[in-house]
Amino acid sequence: MAHKTFEIEKKVRMQHCDPGGVVFTPQYFNLFVEVLEDWFADALRHPFSQLISQDSSGTPAMHIEARFHAPSKLGDTLAFRLHLERLRSSTALIHISARCASERRCSMKFLYGFSRLGSFGLTPWPDELRERMAEFLKE
Amino acid sequence: MAHKTFEIEKKVRMQHCDPGGVVFTPQYFNLFVEVLEDWFADALRHPFSQLISQDSSGTPAMHIEARFHAPSKLGDTLAFRLHLERLRSSTALIHISARCASERRCSMKFLYGFSRLGSFGLTPWPDELRERMAEFLKE
Amino acid sequence: MAHKTFEIEKKVRMQHCDPGGVVFTPQYFNLFVEVLEDWFADALRHPFSQLISQDSSGTPAMHIEARFHAPSKLGDTLAFRLHLERLRSSTALIHISARCASERRCSMKFLYGFSRLGSFGLTPWPDELRERMAEFLKE
Amino acid sequence: MAHKTFEIEKKVRMQHCDPGGVVFTPQYFNLFVEVLEDWFADALRHPFSQLISQDSSGTPAMHIEARFHAPSKLGDTLAFRLHLERLRSSTALIHISARCASERRCSMKFLYGFSRLGSFGLTPWPDELRERMAEFLKE
Hints:
4 copies of one chain form a homotetramer. Chain A has helices at 25-43, 48-54, 127-134; strands at 6-11, 57-58, 61-68, 77-87, 91-100, 103-113, 115-116. The first copy, chain A, is an alpha+beta fold and 139 residues long. Chain A has one domain (6-134): Hotdog Thioesterase (Thiol Ester Dehydrase, Chain A, Roll). In chain A, the strands form 2 sheets. A 5-stranded antiparallel β-sheet of chain A has the order 1-4-5-6-3. A two-stranded antiparallel ribbon of chain A has the order 2-7. Chain A is globular, with a radius of gyration of 15 Å. The model of chain A has no long low-confidence stretch (mean pLDDT 94). Chains in contact: A-B, A-C, A-D, B-C, B-D, C-D. Chains A, B, C, D: InterPro entries: HotDog_dom_sf. Chains A, B, C, D: This is Thioesterase superfamily protein.
């Protein structure tokens, strides 16, 4: 069945690189979160600022699995692709991969939950948000 | 068989926390890398500054799996424990977990390789470094 | 005399905000460096990746003065403007300011030098780069 | 007149360094904020976690002036010294300098205010906190 993919490019900047001249692992996760933020803002029309400030909610990471296939250097343009692998009432398994030109750089799965700020127990995604997320589900 | 464990405490600081008041996922990875740096410097007596500047080498992350059990807040003291799950000629599977008092916060496995800067192909760990690492191997 | 101004917008993201929900001071400096990187890449056509990897050079900050007029929150769009206040053979005094809609948020002056990597002594800007920089000089 | 100085050492870590192998300017500010956090927690006995979570307050930076005298490299141990240059009812001008062995690396002045979270108007320092801060005032 057809499904949507969210795609966005990011540049490898000074702040991402370590003394070895390649992306520093923790900074990769800043890039992944940027992709997630852009997906929420641009595709799901529910930006994190609304999620946190108005809904007093958050999306805690519960499980992360990341594979790094080849290093990324300062100035590289990374093409990120995002889709959903699973969508439950209060969690989502998100797949993000990055390429530079034709080379596969990394891929990761994030299991995110939805919760009220101040609690760690999960709560169901808002209906409208969940419907928009479902369009990115790869079956 | 007996094996060593490397233990170190880290405080959750301003720089680690997001607008939700808990540790921001990418910043968790900065804490994990700090633990790794301390292990190399304090236990393996082979600090990253030597590894990078003198040996022109690095330890690229190849695979990461992380589980987050409960959120960590500003001011929390996290007790990290590190041991090795597997040690091969040019890779190491490192296990790090964090607790705050009696509560399990997160645990992760990092598969690191050893390589010369500028290449992504792996190369064997220096003998002396590998011997010291082996003491932290849990069989 | 007419002079150019470099303008670019940046969004305040999760990674920039502290538990108080506003931009964390050190993260402001990441935004300023992004503006500088974009100026070098897009306006001066001499990206940092070329400066560092090919020219083995860098632009060490020598003096920074920053004023913060009002806080910036998650989701704000900051409009940055950059011009030069002074250009010498091996230094440049760069002025960057940020607004959100009609509100002044911050302004800063950076005195940057040009140097070869591994030395801290300064060396003259490459001629072509210096000529392009001069177009942004406010007299 | 005698006054106290707060001193603490910090190591230059992977996360602080850029592809040029020296401390990346924005990361310097993370180190300065760490020094400030340690001063509040260890010397003033009023940690930021209490300030933010219990007092719903913060210390917005209003003006920063920083001078960088020589670069700092991965593995360097920086000795930070902090004292106060001025203390008003709702602001403090804080001086922090860093050395590595006998070499001066950087020095900066931070003008911080005290405010309630959610407002940018300033409010007086709590009396007890202000009294402890006053011991670090250099006259």
